[in-house]
Design goal:
Strand order of the largest sheet: 2-1-3-12-11-4-5-10-8-9
Helix content: 40-55%
Structural class: alpha/beta
Shape: globular
Number of strands: 12
Number of helices: 14
Largest sheet: 10 strands, mixed
Number of domains: 2
């Protein structure tokens, strides 16, 4: 009996149907897994919102503390080199307070890339426990591996210590530039930066998170600063025309907060044009205080620092209600170490962070003295210049220079 010519009876066609069915089932299974992951991420973020809402603690008042503990985390690469000079400055300026026990300097050595890779923790648990015993942290740059699942130490610390406000001042007095950036520090693209989902060979998705409570507190911090420092202009920087849910809500909430500060003018700007505005000499001196989501703040403050003289000149503070962390804004510069130039790293950025730390914990006169010394050394006198190469001064020589101005 002859076989049917009907293609539906061909064994090859049946196999194709079976293969297609298995492929669809596999894809459906992958989609189900991804949806399950997203459900868990969503629940985690809702839990975080609940913790924020339930935290009724008053912000720490450093003036009321019997002892202020400053944690010192040197970090990776050039971190230990520049941290040596920062600690020398702290020891000099706080000598009386250290001798009396009012201030304690606590070295913490576990926040290194080798220790983090060994434990596979962004911040090893034992190190985090030591950090939480401190009131403020002075941190050197840390290395974040490309790819993989090891989260940035900075991102992890900001989350674990709830350091929601990244504050970066930039000044170029001769050009009338006096900017202060308030970057939201615990949300946006970074809060789930290591928790995206992927269908290998097809697509990958990362997430951006904006909460009402998180946005309100960063906007309030920015407006409170502006009001306390006589500033009259606030720029809210988003991409709300494209990111309508996340950035749209950020802008909306910022305007709601602004209603309580009638003497401060609020303007909306998109991040792309604002990056252009900062290099537009005709208008950039008009800006005063900026408030913006996490990723935009990370990018634009590096641009602003370059206008000031480079990322090596800018310090950064990460402020929460119970903890604060101060750091250089640049990275660990592994190439300098590989090229044997680590001793020629510029400590100015970390020294600027020391100034911000001193001011934050209430030693405003000491902070002002360091600010004056750095201005003389970096801008006015420039008798010792660090270039990052052997044709310039070493990090230690620049430290000697700054200390000579503080002692003088």
């Amino acid at each position: 009996m002859a076989k049917s010519k009907d293609k539906n009876n061909k064994p090859g066609f049946v196999r194709e149907l079976v293969d297609l069915s298995l492929k669809e089932m596999n894809e459906m299974g992958t989609i189900s897994d991804v949806c399950g992951q997203f459900r868990n991420l969503l629940q985690d973020q809702l839990n975080r919102v609940s913790l924020m809402a339930d935290d009724k603690r008053e912000p720490k008042n450093y003036g009321e503390l019997t002892t202020i503990t400053i944690g010192i985390c040197p970090g990776d690469g050039i971190g230990p080199v520049i941290m040596d000079q920062a600690v020398r400055v702290l020891d000099l300026l706080l000598k009386r307070e250290i001798d009396s026990g009012r201030v304690v300097i606590n070295p913490i050595h576990g926040l290194t890339i080798s220790n983090r890779l060994e434990t596979l923790e962004a911040v090893p648990a034992a190190t985090l426990e030591e950090i939480k015993k401190c009131d403020v942290l002075l941190k050197g740059p840390t290395t974040t591996p490309k790819g993989g699942n090891l989260e940035s130490a900075n991102v992890a610390l900001r989350r674990e210590l709830d350091l929601y406000a990244n504050v970066r001042p930039v000044q170029v007095p001769e050009e009338g530039i006096d900017w202060t950036f308030f970057r939201e520090n615990t949300e946006g693209e970074y809060v789930l930066g290591s928790s995206g989902v992927e269908m290998p060979g097809k697509l990958a998705i990362d997430f951006k998170v904006t909460t009402d409570l998180g946005t309100k507190r960063i906007c309030k911090a920015a407006f409170d600063y502006a009001e306390a420092n006589g500033k009259t202009k606030m720029a809210c920087v988003t991409k709300a025309n494209i990111m309508k849910k996340t950035d749209g809500n950020f802008s909306r909430i910022c305007h709601e907060v602004a209603l309580k500060y009638p003497d401060i003018e609020l303007e909306d700007w998109y991040i792309d044009i604002m990056t252009a505005n900062l290099v537009n000499k005709d208008i950039r001196s008009d800006f005063q205080v900026f408030v913006l989501p996490n990723l935009y703040g990370d990018i634009i403050t590096d641009e602003a620092a370059e206008i000031q003289g480079g990322v090596g000149t800018a310090g950064s503070s990460n402020i929460g209600d119970q903890y604060a962390m101060f750091e250089a804004i640049h990275g660990s510069a592994p190439r300098m170490i590989e090229d044997g130039l680590g001793d020629y790293a510029n400590p100015s950025s970390l020294l600027k962070a020391v100034e911000m730390l001193l001011k934050h914990i209430g030693f405003t006169a000491k902070a002002a003295a360091l600010d004056e010394a750095l201005d003389i050394c970096c801008n006015r006198e420039k008798a010792v210049v660090v270039t990052g190469f052997k044709d310039g001064a070493t990090c230690a020589q620049f430290g000697d220079y700054v200390l000579s101005k503080l002692q003088g």
